[in-house]
Amino acid sequence: MHAIPSVQRYRLSTLPRYVDPATIEEIIAACPTDRPVEVRDKAIILLLARLGLRAGDIRDLLLDDIDWRSGHLKVKGKTRRPDRLPLPQDVGDAILRAIMTAALDVPPQDMISPHTYHYLFGLLAATGLRISEALALQCTDLVEDGLIVRNGKFSKQRLIALQPSTRQALEAYLAMRKKLGATGSDLFVSIRGRAPTKTRAHVVFVRLARHLGYRGPTGKSGMRLHDLRHTFAVRSLEACPPDREAIAHHMAGLSVYLGHASVANTYWYLEATPVLLRDIAAASEQLYRGEAA
């Protein structure tokens, strides 16, 4: 018999072992993706690392649990009560690459149209332009300082800056136009020498998304072309420094970049993602500890 009883140890009284973020990124980067089984294995690791799912949660996932339109994943968990979690950015990036690659197979082959949709979808994702703004672009709108958007909403004109990779992609498209003998003053042209209609661009995008399994059959909602604009806005906020003043300035700049009449309109585009949730958790921890948030 002990005079002093032992102190009860709780299961969560000590921090569990963990893998540091740098090592996780090295593991993900080392994953091969040449075969379907390797792509599957990388997807499993991403779900474990980005969303913190249990192995059993991943085992029980069904294709119907993925809502491509809203960008959420339904997970039942231990309680069997479904939770909706945002899909990681890696998933969105992979989907965009798949759609852009599939666009190169749009008929007619050996003509400009496949390249037009390939680079059009890429520009929408990289800049958050409205589809009407992108289709109204002229070749002369690509200038040294960026891209002049003349056909904005409410007839507003603005200049948007371009990442070097985006500029290089547009220059590659113009070179392809010249090589294939495509003419016309519009930046993005079809075989007729004019920009595709907005309806046609939507139809091509939906068909590609459906062919790749990111949309259900006709009549069911799913991923839209306009979702690329939403994604750009969210990714832009994720890249912003975490302090409140920086976020306020960033939101004002993002509103102008997107061509919104008011910054209030910009907030409607934003939603919780793993990155934003992690930042919120860090700020909450600082507040709990009494540190400046």
TrEMBL record:
Residues 14-282 form the Tyr recombinase domain. One of its GO terms (biological process) is DNA integration. One of its GO terms (molecular function) is DNA binding. SUPFAM superfamilies: DNA breaking-rejoining enzymes (SSF56349). PROSITE patterns: TYR_RECOMBINASE. Keywords: DNA integration, DNA recombination, DNA-binding. It comes from the Bacteria. Belongs to the 'phage' integrase family. This is Tyrosine-type recombinase/integrase. It comes from Sphingomonas paucimobilis (Pseudomonas paucimobilis).
